[in-house]
Amino acid sequence: VNGSTLSPRERLLAVPYARAVHGLRVVHTNNIVLNAEAGENTIAGSVLHAVIGGGWQHQIQTESIYSTIGGGARNEIQSYSRYATIGGGWRNQIQSNAWYATIGGGRENQIQPDTDYATIGGGGWNQIQTNSDYATIGGGGWNQIQTNSGFAVIGGGYLNEIRRDSSNSTIGGGGWNQIQSNSRYATIGGGVGNQIQTNSWYATIGGGGWNQIHPNSWYA
């Protein structure tokens, strides 16, 4: 080393150079926050191992351990939403006690409380309501999965709606399609203005426009 022989011989390990990052703060709870200097991004003191990667005016609230906000602006993970992730975008919100919930990006998307493993991929103004565990909205705009509709899926499109107690139901895309309350395992493939009305388990509309399955029509 530097022209001298080591005696006894010792193993040398490569160590990378460290680089300071402006605005980076690593706090004692193993959280990492960028842009923390001016109070732009905040992680509650009771949170462990959380990350805010950049952007501004983000919040990770009380007891939301192992949660992440990648960037964007004004995104929020509320209290007790552990292992939750918001990738980026603007004013996206994972509300309280929604474990493993994910919003990839987009604008003003919302996952409501007690909705574990729910996912909104992107788009805008999409919403998954309370107790709809494992529900998914892929993207699009103004799509909604209402309460107690676990495992429901809206692939995309706009103004599509799966109403309450309609677990395992699917709308592939299109616009203004609707699966009404207590219509479990129902499917609308796409199209415009199609409707499966209440209590119609396992009903299916493949596509097209303004088709309708009336209430209590199982397997239609």
What would the keywords be for this entry?
220 residues, mainly beta, twelve-stranded mixed beta sheet, eleven-stranded parallel beta sheet, 0% helix
- From the spread of the alpha carbons, the general shape counts as elongated
Largest sheet: 12 strands, mixed
Instruction: List unreliable stretches of 5+ residues.
Output: 15-22
Strand content: 15-25%
Could you please describe the fold and organization of this structure?
By secondary structure, the chain is mostly beta strands. It has strands at residues 25-26, 32-33, 42-43, 51-52, 59-60, 68-69, 76-77, 85-86, 93-94, 102-103, 110-111, 119-120, 127-128, 136-137, 144-145, 153-154, 161-162, 170-171, 178-179, 187-188, 195-196, 204-205, 212-213. Strands 1-2-4-6-8-10-12-14-16-18-20-22 form a 12-stranded mixed sheet, with no helix packed on it. It has an 11-stranded parallel sheet with strand order 3-5-7-9-11-13-15-17-19-21-23, with no helix packed on it.
